[in-house]
Amino acid sequence: MITISFPCILAPTALHRLANNEHGELATFRAAVACSTIMYIRSITSLPLIIKDIMHSDDAREAVKHGVEGIIVSNHGGRQLDTCQSTIDALPDIMNAISSEVHQIDVHIDGGV
Question: CA 65 to CA 109: how far, in whole Å?
């Protein structure tokens, strides 16, 4: 399973601080997973690939397009991000977006149900 929406937090080592010109806590973050990363992982394994933190129909369609076996509709800790759409509210649009796709996938939902 790959979480796609939340930035990865890196340990701020001395070498990392020297190599990074950003200041403060921002220097310990890197971008969330890109489609190219998902395509690379897909190319090196035959294991089922499940993408977590899908909250938009466009992202669900991209997941299907890249041949994943499943998605998890998740807002990555909505109780901390209380202005986010709930997963149960996002589910209908996502299901409508992928229901006509040839490649059918498993759809799971977490929290906010």
Answer: 20
- Identify the residue whose tokens are 């409508």: 96
Query: What's the order of all strands across the beta sheet hosting 50-54?
Result: 2-3, 50-54, 70-73, 106-109
- pTM for the model stands at 0.71
Counted domains in the chain: 1
In a domain, 27, yes or no: no
Alpha-carbon distances of 51 from 26, 27, 28, rounded to whole Å? 25, 26, 24
Do the domain assignments include residue 83?
Answer: yes
Give the residue numbers annotated as catalytic, written as ranges: 76
Domain hosting residue 48, numbered range: 2-6+32-109
Residue 25 in any domain: the answer is no
Give per-residue pLDDT as tens, 50-97.
998 888 899 899 889 888 999 999 887 666 666 678 889 999 999 999
